[in-house]
Amino acid sequence: MAEQNDNKVTKIVGKQSILFANAPYILSGSSIAGKKEGDGPLGSFFDQIEEDPMCGGTTWEDAESRFMKRAAELAIEKAGLKSEDIRFLVGGDLLGQLIATSFGIVDLNIPIFGIYGACSTMGESMALGAMIIDGGYADKVVALTSSHFAGAEKQFRFPLAYGNQRPLSASWTVTGSGAVVIGSEKPAAKAKQNSADNGSIRIKGITVGKIVDYGLKDSMNMGACMAPAAYNTISQNLKDFNILPNYYDKIITGDLGYVGKDILIDLLKQDGFDISANHMDCGIEIFNKDIQDTHAGGSGCACSAITLTGYIFQKLRRHEWTRVLFVPTGALLSQVSFNEGNSVPGIAHGVVIEVS
Amino acid sequence: MAEQNDNKVTKIVGKQSILFANAPYILSGSSIAGKKEGDGPLGSFFDQIEEDPMCGGTTWEDAESRFMKRAAELAIEKAGLKSEDIRFLVGGDLLGQLIATSFGIVDLNIPIFGIYGACSTMGESMALGAMIIDGGYADKVVALTSSHFAGAEKQFRFPLAYGNQRPLSASWTVTGSGAVVIGSEKPAAKAKQNSADNGSIRIKGITVGKIVDYGLKDSMNMGACMAPAAYNTISQNLKDFNILPNYYDKIITGDLGYVGKDILIDLLKQDGFDISANHMDCGIEIFNKDIQDTHAGGSGCACSAITLTGYIFQKLRRHEWTRVLFVPTGALLSQVSFNEGNSVPGIAHGVVIEVS
User: Fold this and answer.
1) Where are the domains of chain B?
2) Fewer beta carbons within 10 angstroms: which end of chain A, N or C?
């Protein structure tokens, strides 16, 4: 892949991928996590643990907006920047009409591209953000997303007060928000000091996801619904860039959980790709299922977002990993589509992140 | 603006705008309209009028998906292309979690960036689509959106069967879908014959919108809620490009309606810009309020989308207009945010479209 990158003209790679001529830099990342996430195995990696599920707000939606605002402000601060230095935001959330995002970022006064990719949103926002930077349309953008357990339960299933039982295949929506500042140039030494991030983490390429529908209808088993989309994106990434799974130190899906992980590995074997040795799923890593009662694993836009900004970036900064394929996965359903008996299609966007 | 375009490097213009180094071409546009829209003043301009509000489907959401699928397929066909020629889709709709889009385009098997900008979605999708083309990440993309009167009423207000009364400031959500094929090169002569479009319509630049919240809370008066966002985007477009309103033959907002139009014109006068002579609002044009009972005008993502692809493109092809600023306007609310007493912020994305 490195050799192809020497060609400054060809950005279109294979069927669904892009190789950046001037791979954008990750200037900083922020991770604001809820209490349960802070109690989980990755707790020590997050920038902030917010103990109050309302985050000082008055509704679940307001709380999520506050998480997102804090994530955006912290990422900008860690990069040694001010909000007026950020040309565009690219972001979204799980709630209908993106209200967590709208009310979360309005005070930042930055032009925004609102996006929706369900729990694949962090991948979509980083993919678009990297194109905006590499294309010369901005020198600094923020890609961000959020989710909230209580807001998501109310939006997609039942209000918490209803006390609905959850099957073992159900996942637990992560409460939190992650933001990434993407820039065209390596950060200055000063910014590096202020930030925990090493400026040499770059977005080398992306693989844009298709909507994949295997006809599954169980909104309580989203891992199975999303696995075919993750399979499509990962398989296409490997084919487009003509590489094998071991090119990456880790191939990291968003929130397939225990059920989806097995399906993904099986599906990729059909194409001759074995990722069992280097696959990781953020939904599996973020909670301890034995003591946190989180069933199939974590989910939600923030699951992959804060695992990326908290945990994965640290692994890259320490050069424990040097190349990862980050593949957040989204289940495309709404309360209406579910109640009308529709299937739950999936989508997954791949982001190639490397450190040098 | 033309002079600036000779500079192939500087794409960043002013605070919120981009000037494309290689202005992308509009290869085709399609407009699928509902019956009421077909009965309106612009009826003769639309490609297809679908008399069945269900579009052969079983639910309002399914109907909207069918409108969108038809718009996508027709735009691709009019450009003389097949779906496998389209590298990416950029699109979204008004429904929670974009279900009209997800189920509408899944069969096209094209990688997609799902976006949400409320009724500004056509502007956002064309802005991102043009960046993807100008940046060299694709040679052909489709930007598209849809809305449906009955689906939107159910989503944002009350199901139709409830028979809710509508105040005079309320707008009427347009049923339909519009799609645009954007390409890096002028279409071949053959495609021109098949298509009604002249290949010399190009996207010269964009102005990305901020979320603007004046604190208005009336979801039945969305024109007033969105006017400040349209004001911000139009004023910034004129400042960023250092032009006066008469640079454009038309400055075209999406769905401000009669109430919002007056507010917009007043707000722009504060900045010394008088657009009263060349302003047009798609929501005002699309219905005849005296005989169609549509109160403040049309709204919904499809309002500006089909007015663009049906009417505005024809004006440009005939060179009756040569430069327009297309500014779809979105009201950022959900049923939840409204019921929780939140304000209704607005957003507007500007697209500079010129014919040569």
Assistant:
1) 22-183, 202-355
2) C
User: Are B22-183 and B202-355 in the same CATH fold?
Assistant: yes
Question: From the CA of A348, how many Å to the nearest CA of chain B?
Answer: 10
Q: Which of B337, B344, B349 to mutate to test the interface with A (most CBs of A within 10 A)?
A: B337
Tokens of A42: 């990755």
CATH code for residues A202-355: 3.40.47.40
Q: Do the strands B201-207 and B17-19 form a parallel or antiparallel pair, or are they unpaired?
A: antiparallel
Per-residue pLDDT of chain A (356 residues; tens, 9 = 90+): 544 444 456 699 999 999 999 999 999 999 999 999 999 999 999 999 999 999 999 999 999 999 999 999 999 999 999 999 999 999 999 999 999 999 999 999 999 999 999 999 999 999 999 999 999 999 999 999 999 999 999 999 888 888 888 889 999 999 999 999 999 998 776 555 444 445 589 999 999 999 999 999 988 899 999 999 999 999 999 999 999 999 999 999 999 999 999 999 999 999 999 999 999 999 999 999 999 999 999 999 999 999 999 999 999 999 999 999 999 999 999 999 999 999 999 999 999 999 98
Residues in chain B closer than 8 A to A138 (CB atoms): 12
CB contact under 8 A, B128 and A124: no
ipTM, two decimals: 0.96
Give residues with Cβ within 8 angstroms of B176, minimum separation 6.
Answer: B31, B32, B33, B34, B37, B46, B50, B67, B71, B146, B147, B302, B305, B306
Minimal-distance CA residue of chain B relative to A337: B99
CA distance B197 to B29: 7
Superfamily (CATH) of domain A22-183:
Stage V sporulation protein AD (3.40.47.40)
Task: State whether B208 and A99 contact (CB < 8 Å).
Answer: no
Which residues of B fall within a CB distance of 8 Å from A113?
Answer: 115, 117, 124, 127-128, 208
Structure tokens at B299: 């709204």
